[in-house]
Amino acid sequence: MAIISKKKIPYKISPILHKYLQDYGREMKLPIAYEDLLRFNNSIPLYDKNGNDTLWETVFYAQSDMEYIYSALKKIYALLKADGDMEVMEHLNIERVDLCTYGNTKPIRVRVVNQLNDNFDYFYVKNADASRVYGLELEDLLSPDRMSYLVDEDTLIEEHIAGIPGDQFIKNYLDDPELNEIRLAKEFIKFNERCFVRLLGDMHSSNFVVDVTPDFEEITYRLRAIDFDQQAYEGRKAIYLPQYFKQNNPLIELGLKNLNHQTVRQYQREERSLIARRLKMARHRVKSLTDVMAIDRISTDENVNSLKKELAAFYEERDFLNCKSMGQILKMSLLMLLKKPDLYRDISV
């Protein structure tokens, strides 16, 4: 069972990471900062459609500040979605600004509404953490999904990742007679593999969503991470394997019920092959990122020493023991895709 016992230490974005972000168009001057949005003068609890407290609060600003703040937020949305083209944003309004009152980072969520058809979207404003930025960039480069985000000094802007929260999906949809158990179990195995290879930790059911897409004959599923704070931070291998979080046990049980060892191995090898292909296609950018990460400090020495020993034993690869940072460990983990593509690991509760 995977349990994180200590609060994560936040790390500021280093000058070398800022340089990488500038080089690849991820950093630009924003019209407002995270700290500015904390200067609200009132708030009320936000309830869901069933009247349950969401633990988010809708915040309100002084009338003299509201026009400037909402205009700045529209500009940020335009930068995130339309490369700054404000003409396509004229019919959009900022309907609500919410603050998350639980957790450590206190993210701010902005709801944007289309006046013409009432369609809405969200984006997030956060206090930038280096681990999260590395996680977002690796997700963009090595996962099946693209990520849109922007950084300005200590402010991080993230797009909303649509999907059913994993804990709600497990609670409300696993008994659906239309559920394709085999496809869902397969996707969990592939998600498990992606997280482990790129060292994304803490993927219990509250930290990923299930994207459900009707196919012409069946339904397909994709699990997508929505929390990247535990990118290459923890010192235990189990933290990077979603299969070891008890919250995910119902998905594990689907796999045990519907898949045999040979099928599990096939899906693992498929996913490792796909990641390796993405790695080769983006090799120059991945090298630039991991070179920066290798000399950056994003975890404790204790965690680095613990993780490299566990991975050295797991892969039977002593070169892990020479790693001095989480970035170097990640480089070795990615190298294993090419060096040991047939690595097999059991999936069980």
Salient structural properties:
10 helices; 2 domains; globular; 349 residues; seven-stranded antiparallel β-sheet; Phosphatidylinositol 3-kinase Catalytic Subunit, Chain A, Domain 5; 10 strands
Task: Describe the protein in words.
The protein is an alpha+beta fold. The protein folds into two domains: 31-127, no CATH class; 164-339, Orthogonal Bundle (Phosphatidylinositol 3-kinase Catalytic Subunit, Chain A, Domain 5). The protein has ten helices and ten strands. The chain has helices spanning 15-23, 63-82, 130-142, 166-172, 181-197, 249-258, 261-281, 283-295, 301-315, 326-339, and strands spanning 42-47, 53-60, 92-100, 108-114, 120-127, 149-152, 155-159, 164-165, 208-214, 219-225. The protein has a seven-stranded antiparallel beta sheet. Strands 8-9-10 form a three-stranded antiparallel beta sheet. A hairpin with a 4-residue loop joins strand 9 and strand 10. Helix 5 (181-197) packs across helix 6. It is globular and about 65 Å long. The model has no long low-confidence stretch (mean pLDDT 92).
